[in-house]
Amino acid sequence: MTDQKYYETYQEIKETTDPQQKEKYWKTGFGLNKIDYLEPSDYLTKTLLPEHFAGKLTYQEVESALVNHYQTLPEDDQTLRERECDIVSTRIASLLDNSGFVFNPASLKGIHRYLFKDILPEKWVGEFREKNIYKKEPILNGESVAYANYFMIEDTLHYDFETERKKNYVGIDIQEKIKGIAAFTSSIWQIHPFREGNTRTVAVFMVQYLNILGFNVNNDPFEANARYFRNALVRANYTNQAKNISYTDDYLIKFYENLLNDTDHLLLDQEETLENELENP
Length: 281
What we know:
This protein is mainly alpha-helical. The chain has helices at 19-33, 42-53, 59-71, 77-96, 105-116, 153-165, 174-191, 198-213, 220-224, 226-236, 250-261, 271-279. The longest helix is centred in the first third of the chain and has 20 residues, at 77-96.
């Protein structure tokens, strides 16, 4: 035996220096903000990002520059929309560039708080909603998905997470994995735990979760088809028995097949397709 002691030191996780990988994270952030029809500013894309990709600015330094920039501008609607897109995209890219993750409902709260601090009203940030909500959906001809009752949010999330935790994706074929992942995504999205920002929060959470599970995640669909992703979630959680319309994960499964299985489904905005389906079930 030896008295020599070995000490292992923890190493700091640092952001990638690969500009191509960084660009993918940013494009995912921009794509997810398109869900709410938000576009980044020229100041971010033409001034800050070239410096960031060159390794001269960290994510935090980009965000600080954005905060200072927007303090000098009037708070009109266009400026506020660009500010939200710029800052939330920065935070999405930063989260995707960091492997830290814990699988529990508190992570949803933490992601929401990180993404929307100083963007949404303070009482909404990182807190489960305390009101019941609805949203008129174009693809549902103005009808809404039935979201969870606000006083059942914690219990319902706990049930969904425990159900998912018991799954074992090892040893089953990719199609069954995708069906399971789609079902879990649909369930936690349908709860809609926050007043605003649910789809962006769930998307970031799912990318981190899939990375931890060891999936080879192709983020391109989130960049190019984020609005399809949301519409697919809407359709997965809508039923109208009087009109002979049932829930379907088909659209969401197509999205995940592109995300996880290098399938090449054509994912258009799908509003016209979904509307036709609802009119002619």
